[in-house]
Amino acid sequence: MGMNSRGEIQRLAEIVEPHIGVISNIHHSHVGFLGSLEEIKEAKAELIPLLNRDPTNWLVLNNDSEWTPELASRARCKVITFGIGQGSDVGADGIQNQQEAMEFTLISRKGKIPIHLGIPGEYNVSNALAACAVALILGVPLSTMARALSIFQLPSMHSQIYLLGKYKVIDDSYNANPESMEQALKLLKEIRGGRKIVVLGDMLELGGAAEFFHYKIGSLMGELNIQALFTLGKYSHKTVAGAKKAGIEEAFFFRDKKSLIEKLLTFLRENDCLLVKGSREMRMEEIIDRLRMKLCPST
Q1: Which of 41, 50, 109, 277 is the most buried (most CB within 10 A)?
Q2: Where's the Mur ligase C-terminal domain (predicted)?
Q3: Is 123 helix (H, G, I), strand (E, B) or coil?
Q4: Would the pLDDT of 96 be above 90?
């Protein structure tokens, strides 16, 4: 269930009457509408009273979240936790980054099993653990979970890695918030290849905190040794300012996609690795589509 204001999850839960509810993360998405992480937490917690109507229902919580103890204390139904850290009901041990895949041992009350997750990023290990927690509730065997995760593919524009001509691209263009942006940047850092180049659209719905978070993301790029930054949008100058302060000299902002693409095409070198990401309204996939036309004209 999605939401960007209070009352939406409550109404959706009243319609669906779920037996299992998952609160995956509490991040800064929609903070511009809701005002604070506390309010975002409360909006997502609207699910809990609906689950509490039946003590045999299940609430699934992310044990890596600081909000989980409070949310769990509100539950009168059953609770199961997942997480990468210690103490989760469903956890991961021995996580190994295989560039475009992740490997780990799934640990649960039903036992352990090696997992090959054919998608990149440690954050996707957390997502896989959430799915496994639900599967455990439903009585799915561990072997079936392992097979399903080994063949799972992400939908388009979600952390997909592919080649455009002589360049490697991480297409994460579907949406963005400060936390997902940080994870995507860390994924880019881990990818083997040449220079690491980031193409970012604005992160929207951040309200009065927008300039702060865009500057912060720019600063983070310096810590991650990103070589170049191309930005688009109202707040992109703040991202560039943060990046330049962090020591990234090749940082540019643009008012339109055409200008950005023209500059990027003259900047690229063989084996460069690009991350393309931004909020949904920025339509950053259009940049990838235009790059594909220029770099792979026969496809």
Answers
A1: 277
A2: 167-280
A3: helix
A4: yes
> How far apart, in whole angstroms, are the C-alpha atoms of residue 21 and residue 265?
46
* Dist. CA 5–CA 244, nearest whole Å: 35
Q: Among 5-19, 61-75, 83-97, which stretch is predicted with the lowest mean pLDDT?
A: 5-19
Is residue 244 a contact partner of residue 231, using CB atoms and an 8 Å limit? no
Tokens at residue 254, please?
Answer: 């643009």
Nearest to 163 by CA among 268, 272, 264: 272
| pLDDT score, position 299 | 56
Q: Which residue is listed with tokens 């931004």?
A: 278
Q: What is the pLDDT of residue 85?
A: 85
CA atoms within 13 A on the CB side of 143: 0
| Domains present along the chain, CATH in parentheses | 8-151 (3.40.1190.10), 160-295 (3.90.190.20)
User: What is the Cα–Cα distance from 295 to 270, expressed in whole angstroms?
Assistant: 11
Which residues are within 8 A (CB) of 150 and not within 5 positions of it... i.e. 6 or more apart? 115, 116, 117, 118
Q: Tokens standing for 107?
A: 């640990």
What local confidence, expressed as pLDDT, does residue 36 receive? Answer: 87
Nearest to 269 by CA among 154, 171, 168: 168
| pTM (two decimals) | 0.90
Q: What is the pLDDT of residue 5?
A: 72
- Residue 105, C-beta contacts closer than 8 angstroms, at least 6 positions apart: 92, 93, 94, 112, 113, 114, 115
Give the whole-angstrom CA distance, residue 7 versus residue 10.
Answer: 5
Give 24's Cβ-side CA count (13 Å radius): 14
Which tens digits make up the pLDDT trace of 121-177?
Answer: 999 999 999 999 999 999 999 999 999 999 999 999 999 999 999 999 999 999 999
